[in-house]
Specification:
Elements lengths: L6 H4 L6 H21 L3 E6 L6 H9 L8 E7 L3 H18 L2 E5 L14 E9 L3 H4 L11 E8 L20 H9 L6 E9 L6 E8 L2 H14 L10 H5 L3 H21 L4 H8 L3 H16 L3 H8 L2
Parallel strand pairs: 1-2, 1-4, 2-3, 4-5
Antiparallel strand pairs: 5-7, 6-7
The structure holds S-adenosylmethionine.
Amino acid sequence: MGTPYGEIGVVNAMNNDMKNKMRQKVKTLFNYWHNITLPSNYNVVSLPGESFDFETHVADRAGKKNQNENLLLWMYENDSKLHNKFKKTVEKHGKDSGHTFLYLRENVPPISSFKVLPTFAWYDFCGNPTKQRFNCLYNKDVNKNTVAVVTYNTRTRLHKHLHPMVMPHLGGNYVEKANCEVLTNRLPYVLFSHNYKQKKHGIPMVMTALTNSKQLANVYNKNSKRFSSIEDNNLLLPKISLKKTGKGKRAGKVINNIKNIYMDILLGSEDDKIMEQHKITKNQLSGYKRTITHKRKVNKLKEFVIGLSK
Ligand SMILES: C[S@@+](CC[C@H](N)C(=O)[O-])C[C@H]1O[C@@H](n2cnc3c(N)ncnc32)[C@H](O)[C@@H]1O
């Protein structure tokens, strides 16, 4: 593949049709986010593996419309061999590009590490949703203009290693359910969610894109079909459709608020802060706490928390 990044683009072990389509989907979403957010200083976070196609796209686009743009491109690779293979070339192209390229040999940090700036992050793990991987997004503070795309392998065997909010006993697409229903606690809009395989008999994956930007969600969901060759799973959360009508808008708000109250209690926030933030009385707070205690007692807390997002 001829890219300004020469060898990086050419050494591409993942250059198969399906992966290309998925990457294209992420690049298109990045364009939307970039056009709508119009960021001056911003983070893009990625796991390039052996393909720098997405990263090349981002770097090429940065600063084209607005010369004052300042892109911080954070690329992570925890495999030393791969990191050594690409390090020099990436550093060189970083210098030439005029942007800040960071290619780091370490575990990608949680998305909260980037919260001071608008952030587009692609956590292309392709591994199981383990505690460490799922916690990169789950319950994390984010900048108000954030997109997170996450890719997990859905063939999970050693269930004890999974994040506790990823629940095989729910059956069906439980990894996708966890993405669309649990990870939405801080990034409430699902932009797309696709199940795919890189090869015909390959490992099944799910890629889900989430945001907290209502504006982006509205624009993207209106137009996405025109720009994509991949069928959407139509996994828009009910919350989004509720917001379309006046009545639904209020209902959506109330549901969201109750969910946030429960989450704050579960996260151990102080009573005073919860009452002040959600404008509820001490009695009401006690009621919410009683529900949690009861659900915990009857071993139904996880299902209850998941149900809040539905
Ligand atoms: C699926 S590949 C990325 C593919 C690439 N985004 C593309 O478009 O083809 C994932 C890469 O991230 C690395 N990786 C996986 N988990 C990681 C983590 N927690 N921190 C840093 N690197 C990780 C893997 O070694 C692998 O090289």
